Amino acid sequence: KKPQLSRNKSPTGLLSLEVCDNDDGTYRVEYTPTKPVDHIVNVLFDDQPIRSSPFIVPVDASPDGKLCVPKNTWRAVRKSADDIDGENKQLCGDSVELEVDTSNGGKGELTATAHDKDGDAVDTFVIVDKEKKKSRVVLPHTQKTGKYIVDVLWSGEPIKGSPFEVDILDNISAEEITAAGDGLHEGWTGVASKFNIETSKRGLCKKEDLKVQVVLQSDNQVTISSPTPAIIEDGTGNEVCTAQYTARQGGVHMVSVMYKEKHISGSPFRAVQKQSPDASTCVVCPSWLPESAGAKEGKNKKCEVSNILQGTPITAAVDTSKAGVGQLTGTLYDESKKDFDVLVSAAPTADKYNATVPAVLEPGCYSIELFWSGKAIPGTPLKFNLLHRLEAADISASGDGLVKGWTSQPCSFVVHAKEQGLHDSKKLSVAIQPEVTAVSTKGKKSPPKLSATAVETNVRDNKDGNYFVDYQPVEASDHLVAVQYEGKHIPGSPFRATIQKTPDASKCKVSPSQGKASGPRSGAAPPPPAA
Questions:
Q1: What is the pLDDT of residues 383-436, one digit of tens each?
Q2: Residue 168: how many other CB atoms lie within 10 Å
Q3: Residue 364 burial (CB count, 10 A)
Q4: Which of 107, 457, 462, 483 is 20 to 30 Å from the Cα of 434, by its Cα?
Q5: C-alpha dihedral over 153, 159, 162, 163, to 10 degrees?
Q6: Per residue in 436-446, pLDDT tens?
Q7: H/E run at residue 317
Q8: What are the respective helix, strand and coil percentages of the chain, to the nearest 5?
Q9: Nearest Cα residue to 457 out of 445, 472, 467, 442
């Protein structure tokens, strides 16, 4: 009797069955599972389950190589596990591997075969990680350069991307690597010096095998122990990578670029690092001040507005010995902001400059701004008032000491130089000389001559444009009072002061007459002024 077969049950419902009678007392039952889950099969005879029925049938997913996915490109079996440039390129002698995710490929087996460019078979082996459902295909110790073809199969079906091409490249030596860029030859302190590391065999050089060391070299060619840190970054285009460092001091720096502990072509390089311009370290010494404020301390302090006479040389000396390599420029402008040229010249002393103002300026208020490589020098602008230059004709004098006086008594007068600041006290001079008349043995008088001995004078600056002058004559005679400015007599100079002998009552003799009171004689000299 033909057995009764119930359809197998599954989460998706009943599946269709096909029952074939083998005509020998046996039957063949066929059905097609649609899901990789357990199926229940009930077999009944006369509506009764046969022995062991129902049957539990585990159903696995059918192997599907297209659902097996490579996790990355072929990589060298190294500590870093980095592939070259993210491509299927590796170095000769490396063992290379490909990781494959088989979790969605169903139940199957991963196999691989490979051959080189000459068609010769290459050994491969597969490492299976059942827990993570991942496998690795390994080409051990490739001995030839060129392209390798690797077929990776999942239960005989190619996985996604198979067959694979793996490019095995020749190793590169340090001599085949070059470096180029300004950072290998020159730079500025405090500014990053950069250069590129290049190779004609793109993709062969590993960044982790490169090392850059920068050290400052002293005058006696001995390197200083503390190296300057260098940063290596991934490059673009033909550069393997870029490198940069920042010098802390000026001087010769030796830049060593090494690949696998060996110097590349041209290494070590000699880079001259110049001190970056630093306007804050410039020291300015204006010529119109005795000494620049703060110059001893090596810094500038704000100066008050100075009064300067026309024709006076106006120069500011600038010490740049600590300011690095740069250029000194200057700007001169008046109250209306009109610009004038400032002549900058090198001083005889190294690292020092002179900034000179033109001598054709009109009186007024001016400012000088000084710059070191475009940055303003602290303490500037320097401000000054350019005053009209006083001449001898602009000066006058008044007072009794210019016309008369008494011997051994102070004589004085005042020199008027108008407004304070319009003159230079060092250029004012006062000289007083007595006239001497010689008498011959026959009683004849010769013309008066100036005495070789000048009268001592005292000149006091009243700080208001006036000068008080006093002197004490000794001889009773005419005295010539010469008042000069810049070697020229002022109006009225030389003045003639008549100096009389001071009356001395102790030398008077009195001869009283009878009946008459004595009194001053007619024509007697008036009493001298009170001291």
A1: 888 877 778 888 899 999 999 999 989 999 999 987 655 566 788 899 999 887
A2: 23
A3: 13
A4: 462
A5: 10
A6: 766 555 656 55
A7: strand 315-319
A8: 5, 45, 50
A9: 472
